[in-house]
Design goal:
The protein has 249 residues and is of the alpha/beta class. It has 6 helices and 13 strands. Strands 1, 2, 3, 4, 5, 6, 7, 8, 9, 10, 11, 12 and 13 form a 13-stranded mixed sheet that branches. The radius of gyration is 19 Å and the shape is globular. InterPro entries: ECPIP (IPR029250).
Length: 249
Amino acid sequence: MEMSLNNVSSIWSHWLLLFLTQVTLTTNSAPRSETSLSLNTTLLFNSGAYNLRNCSCYSPIRECDEVLANSLCRCHTVLRSALPPAGLREPGRLAVWVKELWVLEELLNRSMVGHLLLSFCGMKPIDSQYLVLLGLRTLRIHSAAPEAPYPSQEMIISPASGVAVELEALYFDLSSSFHVTFLDVAVLNGLSVLKAYSVVGPPAQTLSQQFPHLAVPFSLPSPATPDNPTDPSEQTAVLQQNLLFTFVY
């Protein structure tokens, strides 16, 4: 089936591409032993093949120091089988210490997190694979790998101020846009400087209508259940917002 140029133009008129969007990036040059969690942080890390430790930390904790976390934080064990299938919902600061890839796949993928600290505490490098995060505003990456040239980096996911002004002139309200971040987990190896670009698109419902075979990384509204306590009206509001896709690599 042929598609006319008018149809193509109509589809892409809903999109404004922001290639290589500027981000606020800070490379932390402090020694690894001095890097630590912020206060009032929820910390998750795997302690064994089938469970996680869920901790509330109110004191600075060195990243990847599980003994110190268990001593100074309030922690309890969460079975791997009890992880929410729809992902986490964490409005505050969330820190995740990663040794194995399943923690990212089963715990974080499609989670709604505003401020995320990801620390790689393993020995074997992580292969390239994309993780979908919803509502992400700030991202901090730490790698405990001894030869990582960029052990600690921080990124604020937002277009440059000049671009933001241009978008507002075109009636794109970035303050109310819904953020969808695709994160290449290979950045946890600390081998390169974080880079990102963003794409501003139409609301999710419009996107699904125009591209019916495109897998949107979140589901349409459904009735609330014990396994999915999300309010359908909240999901509807999200699906009506313009989307800000950011690719971090």
